[in-house]
Specification:
The complex is a heterodimer of chains A (about 325) and B (about 300). Chain A has about 325 residues and is mostly helical. In chain A, about 75% of the residues lie in helices and about 0% in strands. In chain A, strands 1-2 form a two-stranded antiparallel sheet. In chain A, strand 1 (about 170) and strand 2 form a beta hairpin. Chain A is globular. Chain B has about 300 residues and is mainly α. Chain B has one domain (about 15-285): MetI-like fold. Chain B is built from 11 helices and no strands. Chain B has helices at about 5-15, 20-35, 35-40, 80-115, 120-135, 135-145, 155-180, 185-190, 195-230, 245-250, 260-285. Classes of the chains: A mainly alpha (about 325), B mainly alpha (about 300). At the A-B interface, helix 1, helix 6, helix 7, helix 8 and helix 11 of A face helix 5, helix 6, helix 9, helix 10 and helix 11 of B.
Amino acid sequence: MLTYIIRRLLQGVVVLLAVSLICFVIFRYMGDPVLTLAGRYATQEQIQEVRKSLGLDQPTYVQYVKFLWNAAHGNFGKSYVSRVPALGLILERFPATFELATCAILISLVFGVGFGVLVALRPYAWHSRAIMAGSLGGISMPTFLTGILLIMIFAVYVGILPPFGRGKTVEVGFWRTGLLTVDGIRHLILPAITLSTYQLAVLLRLTRAGMREVMAEEYIKTAWAKGLSPMTVIVKHALRNVLIPVVTMAGLQFGELIAFAIVTETIFQWPGMGNLLLTSIYETDQPVIVTYIMMAAVIIISINILVDIFYAVLNPKIRYD
Amino acid sequence: MTRKRKRSKMLHSFLHDPPAMAGSLIIVVFLTAAVLAPWITPQDPYDLETLTFDNFLTPPIWKDGGQMPYLLGTDDQGRGILSTIIYGCRTSLIVGFSVVMIAGTVGVLIGLLAGYYGRWLDAVTMRIADTMFSFSTTLLAILLLGVFKKTGIGTVIAAICIADWVRYARTMRGSVLEVKQEAYVLASRATGARDMRILFRHILPNAMPPVMVVVAVDLAVVIMLEATLSFLGVGVPITEPSLGMMIAIGKDYIYAGMWWMVVFPGAALVVLVVGINLFADWLREEFNPKIERTG
C-alpha cells in the first residue's frame, strides 16, 4: 500500500513537471513579455535592459530551471497589469472559489444521490419520470444558461435574491468568508445552484444506473428474504456499493468543476480565481494565467491521487503494483 | 446473429422508442435549417447592408412594437433573433461535427494502437490521456483559447479537438482490450494474419459500438462547449454568428425586461442538445446488454 501511494505521488510530480514545462513554453514564446513590459515605444537599450533583467538573455534550459526554482518558491513573477505578485493575486481570490465549489459539490452529492436512489426504486412512478426529465434538462443545459435563467427568474422577476457579487464578507485570519453573514449566504445561493446542476444530473444518472444493477443482484434478494427493513437493504446493502463509483466520479470531475466555476463566476461577477483568469486572458496577463494553470494542476492532481488512494482502500481487488 | 438481422432488430427497437425518434426528428430539423439557412431566413444578420439601426431591440411579433419580418424580435444591432439563431445553429453544428470527426478519428486510432500493442505505447498515451481527462475538456479548451493568439471557427475547432480526443482514445482502448481476447482474433492471428489486417478487419469494427455512444454524447457536449466558449468571449469572433455570443449580448438586457435575446437562443440550444441526448440515451441502452430495456 505504501509503495502504491509513493508511486502515485511520484507520478503526480512527473505530471506537474510536464505542466510546468508547458507553462514555461507559454510564458516564453506566446506574446513577448519584453514588449509588454518595456512598452511599444521603448528604445533598443531599454529593451535590452528589460531582457536582461528578466533573464531572457540566458540559454533556454537555464531559464527553465530558474522558472522551476522560482515556481517551487511560489514566485511566478508579477502581473503585467497590476504589477503585484501573481500568486498573491490568485491566493487572495482562492477562498471565494473554494466556498462556491464546496457548496456546489455538497448540493450535487446530496441531491444527485438522493434523487438517483428514489428513481431507481420506483422507476415508473410519476415523480421518477419528472426527476429523469429534469436530469435530461440538467445535462442538456449549459452552465451559463442555467445561471442567466436563474438570475432572470429570482433576481429580475421575483426579485428575492441578489444577481451578482459576493455580498458582505468577514475576515477570519487570512480567510475572507461569505458564509458567516446572511447577506453572504444570500449571494451564494444562485451561483452554488448554477455550479451544481450539471454535476448533480451526472451523479443522479450514475446513482440510478448503479442502483438498478445492484438491486437485481442475488445478495439483495437474500437481504429482502431475511426480512430486513427496506432502509437497511437500500442504504446498507445496496447504496454502499453504488457509492464507490459515484464518489470516485465526483472526484474525477473536479477539473470540470473548476472549468464551470470560471463560467459561473463570470456570470455572477463572483470575485474568485476563475473570474480573474478570464480578465487576465482578455488582458494577456501571462504571469497570472501561468500561475492559475499551475494552481489548477496542483489541485486537480492532488484530488486525483486522493481519490485513487481512497479507491484502493475501499476496493481490495485493486493491486498495488 | 448475422449483421443484417442485427440491423433490422435495431431499426425495430428504434421505431418502438418515441423519445429516440423525437430526438432524431429534432436533429434532422436543425440540420435542415442549418443547411438551408441562406434561403429560409428572413434576413442575413451578418450582412451589414441589411442592418438598420431603426430596428434595434424590437420585441417579438406578438408583443406591442413587434414588426415584420422579425418574428422573434431583434437585438441591439437590429439583427433578427430568428435569423441569427438559424445561423448560430449552423456554427454549432459545423463545430460539433468537425470536432467529432477529427478528434474521433485521431482518438480512435490512438486508442486502437494503445490497446492492441500495449506496453510502453499504452502506458505513455494513457497516462497523458488520464491527465488531460482529469483537467476536463472544458478547462483545457478555455486555457488553450486563452493562450492562442488567433481567433476564428478553425481555432475553436482545433482547441476543442486537442482537448477532446482523449475521450475517444480511452473508450476505444478499453473496448479493444476486450475484443482482442475474442476467439476470432486469436484464430486470425493463428492463421498468420498480419497486424494491420487483424487491427482493421477484426478489432476495429467489433470495438466500435461503445465509441458510437461516445460520438453521440460528445456531439452534445461539444455543441454546449462551443456555446460556452463563445459566451465567455474566447470562442468564435463577434463577426461570426453563435448562440453563446447571442446570449452573452442578451444578458446585459435582461434587467431591462428584454428577455427575448436570451430565452430564444437559449431554448434553441437546449432543444438541439436534448434531441442529441435522447438519441444518445437510446444508443447507450441498445449497445449495453447489461441493462435491460425497461422504463
